TrEMBL record:
Keyword Ligase: yes
Keyword DNA damage recorded: no
All copies of domain GH3 C-terminal, residue ranges: 443-559
Entry superkingdom: Eukaryota
Keywords (A to Z) from UniProt: Ligase
Provenance organism: Urochloa decumbens
Ranges where the GH3 middle domain occurs: 345-428
UniProt GO molecular function: ligase activity
Database matches in InterPro entries: GH3 (IPR004993), GH3_C (IPR055378), GH3_M (IPR055377)
Family: Belongs to the IAA-amido conjugating enzyme family.
Protein name: Jasmonic acid-amido synthetase JAR1-like
Amino acid sequence: MTICSSDEIIDEFELITRDAGRVQQDTLRKILELNADAEYLNRFNLERRTDSKSFKSCIPLCVHSDIESYIQRIADGDNSQVLTGKPITSLSVSSGTTQGKPKFLPFNDELLQSTIQIFRTSYAFRNREYPIGNGKALQFVYGSKQVFTQGGILATTATTNLYRSWRFKEAMKDIMSQCCSPDEVIFGPDFHQSLYCHLLCGLIYSDEVQFVFSPFAHSLVHAFHTLEEVWEDLCADIRAGVLSKRVTTPSIRQAVSKILRPNPELASSIYNKCQNLSNWYGVIPALWPNAKYIYGIMTGSMEPYLKKLRHYAGHLPLMSADYGASEGWVGSNVNPTLPPEEVTYAVLPNIAYFEFIPLEKPKGEEMENSSSIHYIESEPVGLTEVEVGKIYEVVITNFAGLYRYRLGDIVKISGFHNSTPELQFICRRSLVLSINIDKNTEKDLQLAVEEAEKLLAEEKLEVVDFTSLVDRSRDPGHYVIFWELNSDNASEEVLSSCANSMDLAFVDAGYVGSRKIKTIGALELRVLRKGTFGQVMNHYLSLGGAVSQFKTPRFVTQSNSKVLQILNRNVTQSYFSTAYGI
């Protein structure tokens, strides 16, 4: 790949977004020509037609369960043209943190190329606002276990698929600062050792670090929380030039030892800076003085971590990374100065074919703070047919065998960049909490927790992490919210008030009505031991997941028995709401 300047990349983006409608038609035609002989398309009698009208009339909207049997055949070794014209040789594994069961999704060279394009585009706009030199990036990136399916197909996380690719590495050299850590750290078999070495390598190159990155805000917060615990050991390593015995993996030890030299002056500087920090506020600019920003996905389920991340970041801006999923990419952040809560994503019209299902709120359910709506759906519209201010569900057709695939994401159209829409991510559409007629989503849960957190702030306490459960073990069923706090000093009075606050914060009409007539029981707040969500993450990692892809499940189903066991054995206190009477 040739080296492109930021201006050239931006010019290319401006060109394809000026006539996004035509680019979309060309993109669909290319997808359908490449995959004309795919069994899935032929099942619906598309008969090699490549126009959007034929495509939409023949091919139905689908979700993962509709194509799961096709993907399983690929995993089992069927190398015929099942979903694509060329055989699929690798699969991406989605996080699977809610149901406890990861999903397989096709991954191919075309998805790799679209990733490179997305990253190049956002980099160009980012670099225009915050120019970076030839320094390094402190990247908290982790590979995951690579497994081969029964049919010999490589299956791993999307992040690992990228960072294992030489094409991706070559492309990133043009647009991304070099990672402080060697590959042996990124692909190490033990996450805790890799994290320790990421921090160590970042400190060794502290003056050269231009920005801090991890795919998700959660792993950034986790990294700097770990720094609070191991900073003295890191200083000792740098002072003596000898790697801690906690790092036992030979390949990591060998790679890191090559760059670790005795540096008492640096060790003393780091030690003094850490000692002088007030509750670790502004630790990132203090230790990495040339860092210009912090970058990662910060929307959706990552929003609850922004408060803590801002604490660590001090004056440094937080910048939300691009919008996509294991299924494929959607848009780039071309307005990098916007805070994460307001970030928008400009859709790249040549990386996939996009449709949008209009969602209308029924009369009587137009509640200001509630995303828990059973929307009325209309026929999908094209990329350039969406309207500013309206909300939609995203549908994607990509080069890797997904056709009219419902992502399950609700977005709002905030405006247009040339003729391509800029999207604001609202929430996942899938319900999180529901017992009968109540309908509450992840966003509603987040808002309820944030409301209750205001009571904790008075006692200088904060929620480290949270999840939820619908408990139907007795009638009537009720919501259970699990909290891990940063301290054990919360009073019973405050925690009882928090339970009441969350109960009242769920303003969905079905929930409020059901609580009043007691067909839904009192909300229960269960307080967990410190470190519980660390155990949940370790369980996920033991299944082959990568910490850079880990997202705390905001809702745990009864089928996810292992996570439920971890949560229930760590409950220290339980409080039932009295907001609707006892």
